[in-house]
Each structure stands twice: as structure tokens, then as C-alpha cells.
Amino acid sequence: MLGFRLFGPVELETDAGAVDIGPPQRRSVLAALAVDAGRQVSAETLIGRVWGDGPPDGARRALHAHITRLRRLLSDAGAGDGGTAASVPRQANGYLLRVEPERIDLHRFKGMAERARDPGLAGPERLELLRGALELWRGVPLAGIKGEWAERVREGWGRQRLDVAVHWAGLELQYGGRDRVPHRLRELLTEHPLSEPLIAALMRALHATGSTAEALACYASFRERLVDELGAGPGAELQHLHQALLRDEIVAPPSTPPAPSTPPAPPSRVVPEQLPLDVRGFTARAAELAELDALLEESVKHPTAVIISALSGTPGVGKTALAVHWAHRVKDAFPDGRLYLNLRGYDVGPPMSAHEALAALLGALGVPAPLMPPDTEQRAARFRTEVSGRRLLIVLDNASSAEQVRPLLPGSPSCMVIVTSRDSVPGLVTLYGAHRILLDLLPLPDAIGLLGTLIGARVAAEPRAAAVLAGQCARLPLALRVAAELATTRPGASLAELTGELADHQARLDLLEAGGDGRAAVRAVFSWSYQRLPPPVQRAFRLLSLSPGPDVDAHAAAALTGDSPEWAERTLALLARASLLQPAPPGRYGTHDLLRAYATWLSARHDAEHERRDALTRLFDHYLTTAGAAMDILYPAERHRRPEVGPPTPYSPALADAAAARTWLERHRPALLAACARAEQDRPGHATRLAAVLYAYLDNGGHSTDALLMHSYALQAARQTGDLAGEAGALVHLGVVHLQLGNHDRVTEHFTQALAIFRELGDRTGQARTLGNLGMLQGRMGLVESAISHHEQALELFRELGDRVGEANTLNNMGDVDVQCGRLASAAERHTRALAIFRELGHVGGEATALNNLADVQVMSARPQAALDLYQRALALFRQLGERYGQVCVLNGLGEAHRLAGAHANAVAQHTSALDLAVEIGERDEQARAHRGLGRAFQAIGDPDRARRHGEHSLAIHIELGTVHTEDLRAWLASLGTPPQDPSAPDLST
């Protein structure tokens, strides 16, 4: 019987043995057809799969020759089956391998896995199907075949195998032999060491076989691997399983494997909903919608590879509208979320980099900025990890090239990707098997139909004029919508009159581009619509193009135009009704890149340079003063530390309370970052002040990536203009960010430079702050005498200046050094004085810090109950403020207090929570502290192996940071019975 083997080396088998397929390229052609057996594969796709993105000139002829030879091979090999077991008929645009799926091991595997999901089958029957499917696996798919396409197939089917193995394990525990499960799962873990579903299955199996301690050890070593390699801890589902095992609760394995196309997301995962508003009056494109529907159906029926659809076509043809409309139609098919990202491929500015795009995508999935790897490829890997197994729709709009998109592609077949681009992105088709949909101009009947939907009965009454209008708009949906909106504002004019007016306008328009192509028609329609606007609205449309951010609200628009927010709100709505802007809730408006380019062109022609400059100045003033008002609400006690920004502008919103202030900052953070980047070029004073104003918000909110960017912009702006005070301030702020991230070399460099500048300027406040920060750094590094010296100098300056916040902060920091030195009475006295000052000032964050520090003293004094009370009060305040760094410190303190009180299980729980949060915000010192606490807690429980693992991890972090505790940790680890390894020492074993 003729059969195909795709698991392992690609082989063709008969009852007489293996058939010699021929050279490697022919084997690749057979594999490229067999993976999609029963479905047409275009010649272009086959060439991309076999030869890659740069095929030789003779690739098409070579493909035809290989197909001819394969036909003869299949005919000869299938002689025992009547010669018709398999064939490769020519299709309209490619070829198809016609064969029963059961003859191909890969498809047989898929069929058995799908049948095992039938809830009507008894458990033992499902188990036998999964056993049979796993037995088919004799090696990685397409072994020996090179190229990016083959690698993606291997990745996709490797994940399918993991899904099957995980659910086999659950059924085997219920209906089969439990003892065989852990061994089989461990074998798979050697191939997939970072698979959370696999480690969860192993933990359940070990628990079921009476090895709960080993299951907990698996979790500990797995989380360490994740932190080391991805900079992240386990997901919420695995953490929940871990907590259940700690409580010795029975964790039932899943009995029915869900379809891989719709895996449930863990309850705590972010479900992004980023689709823009659906297009009003969307019509036509029935064929293209049907193609997308078919791709969706294929992704459900054959979840073996990521389905990618590439929508390409001329500007204004409706690529984004089609993608967004279809995405809204099918959003229920993607319960884990809908991601949308404008890649700005053809915007006025540069295209979005893959690095920036991955940050946006990871942020939308709930990954905090500190957990985003610095390297683009690492970010791409983290993105693939985050979306693995999740049923997500990803719309990548306005791509410039396949190279821009490649790092943003998921690896999981549970995801579907829609890419829109003016380019045909051939690389996506050849390398990733993307299904290309080329959007042509609307057929004339559809163009007239769209006008009818938008304008109404006048189109049916004047069919000839409607046809002329459609032609004048080049049958482009964007131009048709703009023209239709103009027509609806003039109900008394006939369509014939309007088409005559447009024809005359086109004749008079000084077009930038020669010829009668669609872009010229679009510009003419834009101009026609623009000319109908009142002059003040025309001016607003032009000036809006100056905004550096992705969109604007009424307040930003008012600042650009110099009018009231109420007028700006009405103007934005009018421009949206004219289809010259697009609503982007809540209360914001964006614009198509063609319209933005047109508005930019208009502004350069009609607005004087000083008008454009004044508009940007008003916008930056608005952002600066509103940010200052928000910070005054959130951090009133530190107002004196921020630069003077002046009173709110007439364009600024009223921020009623802390919630409104925090919401405004969060909602406008991308615009503020863009404004700072733009201001660095031509408004340097705005850049330095905006970064300084936002310092505490970015720092306490854990926005380290944005903070590094914004303070770097500020530093460059200050240096360009010789602003020494601004330069020193930016250096201090950059140093604090690096201090939290554990980059101590950079911290020393920044603080030292800043201190020299402040001394040159005679700025005693700046000197005091920098001296205090240097003291904090030296305290962390164990240089206690130097730390105390710097803190004493800072304290003296703060008292001379009457800076009570600075005085209290310094007392707190000096108390921390006292604790390091064992001077507990002095530490308690300093923290108590700091607490009194903070309460007098109403500084809630400072009060929480002082309470936490007093609790630390109680722990060191062996008074755990008193410490627990203080920690709980501090934790409540930090949670009220949303300050996560403070929460980490308190959670670690609670763990230490519980261990001291003998509540070792509680200690493990608190340190574990602290470790998770410390990893999330990128705080390395507290990660080391959490590992140290877990090590001592597990030692007390009687688990020296886990104690040693956590202790060694803590030691590794302390060595990396150059901080204290290394000698104590080495001594403690030695007491456990095995001398610790120095993580920084070379491996001399080979």
C-alpha cells in the first residue's frame, strides 16, 4: 500500500519498501504538496517553499520538471493500488496532491487527534486514539529539508504534538498506567524546556503518583529557567497549579482535550480588543470577504500552521476598511482577543520599527515594559511565547515590507494574521504561505452601490451622473466616501451639478503628480472636499497634521488651532463627518496616512512658518501644563521638586481627582512620548521640562522603557542647547531608572556626572538629591561608610534648604544603612522621625515607606508580630497608590516575618508573590531577596534541594549586581552540604 511519511525524513513507501524519491529538491517539492494534501498550492508558493525568498531564474522550469518526475514515481509506486492511489493534477494557478489523507502519517496523526476530541467517545477510546497518534511520531517533520518554510512547519507540528501529549497524559492518569506518564513527559521536556502546558502536565502526573515534592521542585526549576531565558515568571495558570500543590489540593487533569483551534485563555490573561471602529456603510467586496471566511474555516479545520492573509492594493482602495470590517464580523471566532497595529509603512514619518511594534503588541497582551527583552529577536520570541495556544486575530495594518512584518508573526496555528500593505509583500507568500488578496478598484456597479449607500436615493435617480462621479473618484472607496459626504451636505444640488464642479476643480488643481492615476484622483477629491470647508476648519485640518502623536483629542486640537476645546470638538466632529478624520475612541481622532500627507502638503503651502511654530508651541505647552497639573494631584508633596510649568493653558482639561489625573496620563502617554521626541529636535526646553515633570509617574508606574526614552530625549535636548541644569536633572533621572534595573555601572556614571554639574552651578537642591541617590547605590553595594557619608551630606543640605521631603527620605535611607550595620535602635529612631514628617506633609507614599522600614527593624529585632502589623499597614497604602515597587518590598518583608514566626508555608507564599511582582517590574535586588527568603523557608521546611536552588539563584543575582550578601549566602549555602558554584566562574569541565 502506498504511503507518505513526513514525520522524520520525507519518504514514499510501498509494500515492497521505500521508494527513491530523488534529489533533495524533489523531496522538498513532495513535502510542500503533501503538507497541504487535497488543497491547491500555487506555483509561486511551491517555489518559495522549496527555494526560499530568492529563487533562481530557472526555478519555475525546475519545479515543472520535479512535478513531472513525481507523477511518474507516484504512478509506479501506486501500481499495487491500481495506479490511482496518488496523483498531482495541474490546477488553475498551481498543483494539488490528490491522495487519501490516511496515507500520510502527518494527516493520520491530525485525524486521530481530532477524533479524540469527540466528547461522545468514552475516555479509554480517546486514550487509545491519542496513544496511536503519538506512536506515529518518529522524528521531527520534514527532517533534512532546509529553509524557513520547513522550519515553520516543524514548529507548528511540534506544538500540535505537545497538545496531544498533554491531553494524553491527563487521560493516561485517569484510565491507563500512571507510572509511565512522568518518564514520557520528561523526554518531551528535553525538547521543549519552556513549555508551560508540558510542565503543568508533569506536575499533575508527579502529584498523582505521590511525588508532590518533586512536582514542586519541577515548578521551582522551571520558573528559574523562564526568568533566566525570557525574563518572566510562569503564567497565572501554572502559578495557580503551584499554589494548589502547596496546599496539597487534588488537581484534576483535563479529561477532554479541547480543539487546538480554540484553547481557553487563563482567566487572568489580558484579552485585547484593539480593533478600530467598523466602517459605516461598508459594501461590496463580497468575493474578498468570502476568501477571508474560507481562510478562517481552514484555520479551524486544519490548525497546523499560522494562517496569514496579505491584503494589498493601491492607496485608498480600502485595505484597512476590509480588514477591520471582516475582523468585526468574525470577532467571536477569536475569544482570546483582537490585536490591531498600524505599522505606519507609508506614513509621513518613518515606518514603525519591529522593535517598537513588538513593544506595542506585548504591552497590549499585558507584558510590563521591564519584562520586554532589549533585543528585537528576543522580543519576537517573547511575543510568540505569549500568543502560543491562544485564539487571537492579529491585524497588522499599513506594512511597508515583509521584513517589517516577519518578527511580528506568531508561531502558533491558533492565531490568524491579516496584513495590509500597498506592497504585494511577496516574501510573506513565498516564505510563510500567506494567502494574497489583491484589492483592485471597485467594479463600477459596486462603486455606484457604495455611493447609493452613503448618499441615498439621488444615486438611483441620476444613474449616469453617479457613474461619472464614481469614475472621477477612480472607484477608490476612500475618495468615494469623501465625495459622498460632500454630496450629503448639499442636498439641493444634483449629482450632475456636483460632477461638473468636480471636473472643473480637477482641471484647475495644481496636482503634485502627473498623469491620471488613482492618487491624482484622490488628491482632487480631497481638495474638492477641503475647499467646501469653512476657512477656520480648513486651517484646523492643516494644523492637525503637525501633531507628533498618533491621534488627538479636542484639547490637543484646540491647542494646535488656538481655539476653545468646545470649538475644537465641533470641528473634529465636522471633519470626521466629512471623512477627513476617523474617530478613535475614547474622544480621540486619527487620520488616514494619505489624508495626513495631504494636510501636511497643504500646511506647507498655506501656513506661514511662524504659524506652524506657534501651533506646536501651544501643543507642547498644553501637554506640559496638563501633565504638571496631573502630577500636582498625584504627588502634591513633591511639587517643589518639579520644574515650573506655569498655569494650565486655556486648552487644558479639568482634572477633578487622582483617578482623572492617572487616566489622563495613561491615555496620553504615547502622545507625551512622541511630543518629547519631537520637542528634543526643535523645542528642547519643552523636552527637558516634560521629562522632569513626568519622572515620578514613569518611575512609580514601572514604565521603564518609556522613562529611558524620555529622559534620553531630555538629555540630548539639554546638551544641544548647553542647558546644564537640564542635563544634570536628566542624568539623575536616567540613573534612578538604571538603579532599579540593576545597571549599576551606568548608575555610577550618571550620578557622578550630575553631581559635578550641580556643584558647578551651585545648585544645592540638585546636589542633595544626587548625594542621596549615590548613598542609596553605595548602600546596596555594601559600602556603608561611604553611603552614610553621602547621606549625611544630603541631610545637611536638605535641612539648610528647608526641604522636608528630602530630609525625610534621607532619614529613611540612613535608617536602611543602620539596619545593614546592626544599629537597630538608631534605625528605628530615624524611621520614626521620617514617618512623623511624612504624616505632617500628607505624603502617603513616604508614610508607607517609613512603615515598611520600621517593620524591617522589628524583623531584625526578632519581633515578628509587631512587624506583621506594620507591613500590613504599609501594604494597604502602597496598594492604594498603585506603587508596585513598594508592594514588592513589603511582600518580601512579610515573608521574612512569617518565617521568623514559624509560619513557613506563609513565608513561601509571600516570597513567591514578591518574586512574581519583582520579575514583572524588573527589580533585580528584590528578586534576589525573594530567592534568599525562599531558600531559607525551604530549609526550615526540610527541603534542602529547593533551598539550595533558590540560594544559588540569589547568589547569582547579587554577584551580577555587585551588591551585599554574597559572603553570607556562600556561607549559608555551604552549610547545606554542597559548596556553592560561583556563577561567574568559567566552566573547566571540558
From TrEMBL:
DNA-binding region, residue intervals: 1-99
SUPFAM superfamilies: C-terminal effector domain of the bipartite response regulators, P-loop containing nucleoside triphosphate hydrolases, TPR-like
Extent of Pro residues compositional bias: 254-269
Biological-process GO terms, alphabetical: phosphorelay signal transduction system; regulation of DNA-templated transcription
InterPro entries: AfsR-DnrI-RedD_regulator (IPR051677), BTAD (IPR005158), OmpR/PhoB-type_DNA-bd (IPR001867), P-loop_NTPase (IPR027417), Sig_transdc_resp-reg_C-effctor (IPR016032), TPR-like_helical_dom_sf (IPR011990), TPR_rpt (IPR019734), WH-like_DNA-bd_sf (IPR036388)
Native species: Nonomuraea jiangxiensis
Residues spanning the signal sequence: none
PROSITE patterns registered for this protein in UniProt: OMPR_PHOB (PS51755), TPR (PS50005)
Protein name stated in the entry: DNA-binding transcriptional activator of the SARP family
